[in-house]
Amino acid sequence: MAIDILKKGKQIDKTFVVDLLESADKSLWDDIFSLADFIREQYMGNAVHLRGIIEFSNICKRSCNYCGLQKQNKQQHRYRMMPEEILKCVSSVAELGIKTVVLQSGEDDFYTLDILVDLIKQIKKNYDVAITLSIGEKTKQEYRALHDAGADRYLLRHETASPELYNKLHPDSCFEDRLKCIKYLFETGFQVGIGSMIGLPGQTNSNMADDILFLQKFQPDMIGTGPFIPNGQTQLKGTEAGTIEQTLKITALARIVCRKAHIPATTATGTIDKFGREKALHVGANVIMPNFTPQKYRVHYTIYPNKRCITEDGHKCNTCIRAMIINEGRTIASDYGHALRFQK
Ligand code: SAM
Ligand code: FES
Q1: Which of 196, 206, 214, 227 has its CB 3.0 to 4.6 Å from that of 242, i.e. a possible disulfide?
Q2: pLDDT higher than 90, residue 75
Q3: How far apart are CA 127 and CA 87, in angstroms?
Q4: What's the CA gap between 255 and 252, in Å, rounded?
Q5: Among 188, 90, 94, which residue's Cα sits nearest to residue 138?
Q6: What is the pLDDT of residues 179-223, one digit of tens each?
Q7: How far, in Å, is the centroid of ligand 1 from the Cα of 227?
Q8: pLDDT at residue number 340
């Protein structure tokens, strides 16, 4: 039985995952969801980790076909926060007792290595928080310098484990480079987050099975998976979004093959389904990222449309998310929520 194989925690192969993804057997999927929830509780506990995200620039030199921040999108109003402004936001995250700040942006060369290193050092000197960076592809030397400055974690989604699909969606970059960056991140000592979009145009069950095997192979410390949502200002306008069903299936399988990973219930999941984040928390997720980007900028970080939590400020987002977590029968973590392999 498929569920017994999953329970054993042995390596699974591609045919097995494709068969699962093609199965419409509701009771099998209910069992898989329960198993994922059980594994999450066993390995990660009941507490949900909060990570305060600051989207500090929406300027990007890249052309990812799915993303509203791509440089070709002339309709996008652009902004860039100065280091002092970013520090102020970090201070609101820390004041609320949130122990991780996630700094995310497009690939914006305004932030030189010196600026980033200085910012990281300032944060570490003044606030008791772990730092996660999500600022795209860099050289190994740059990753090393950012890690040496004090950044703890780095999110760089692999987006899709299919080289053909990846290369099709990224006209100015390639799968091989993404893979190289992910390897550099592990080698430089970061806690590493990877993950894919679910339901990309042209993505097959075979491609999604490859995503699961990719996670199984790399055993990342964090996994960011969420549905693809079409943006009308990109080449993928008018295509279908990923569904909540697919998203929950991939989240559950990600939890089953990576038992010790931190897995967020992503904003995109909460965008395609009003209770998407709540549902994700019950199939393996154990992290939520309240948004601390100042409101005047937040409305312009439009990776995809109708983004969740676009109008609330950080304090409101924090209050609302805490209430939701308690309502789902979970507690709120008060520690840093480092990767398990880094905890003593
Ligand atoms: N520039 C950084 C990078 O490439 O890692 C971080 C910013 S990028 C906007 C963050 C993530 O947004 C991407 O890794 C991608 O998975 C996700 N994303 C972009 N466009 C999306 C869309 N239309 N629907 C869902 N997720 C999307
Ligand atoms: Fe650069 Fe999306 S294309 S952040």
Answers
A1: 227
A2: yes
A3: 9
A4: 5
A5: 188
A6: 999 999 999 999 999 999 999 999 999 999 999 999 999 999 999
A7: 11
A8: 94
Residue from 58, 61, 67, 133 whose mutation best tests the ligand 2 pocket (most atoms within 8 A of CB): 67
For ligand 1, the distance from its centroid to the CA atom of residue 135, given in whole angstroms, is 10
Token readout for 196 is 């894919």
Interval 44-60: pLDDT, tens: 999 999 999 999 999 99
pLDDT above 80: residue 344: no
Q: Is 66 in the pocket of ligand 1 (CB under 6 A)?
A: yes
Q: Which residue has the tokens 């390639």?
A: 174
Cβ–ligand 2 distance for 69 under 6 Å, the answer yes
CB-count burial class (<10 Å; 0-12, 13-18, 19+) for 263: buried
State the alpha helices, DSSP H only, in 127-235. Answer: 140-149, 163-169, 175-187, 205-218
Strands (E), the chain: 47-50, 52-57, 100-105, 130-134, 153-155, 191-194, 197-198, 222-223, 226-227, 287-288, 331-332
The residue among 180, 209, 183 whose CA lies nearest residue 196 is 209
Residue 139: φ, ψ to 5°: -80, 165
Q: What is the pTM of this model?
A: 0.97
Distance 158 CA to ligand 2 centre (A): 13
CB contact at 8 A, 158 and 176: no
In the reported structure, the alpha carbon of residue 208 is separated from the centroid of ligand 1 by a whole-number distance in angstroms of 17
Q: Is 306 left (phi over 0), alpha (psi -120 to 50) or beta?
A: left
Average pLDDT over residues 276-305: 96
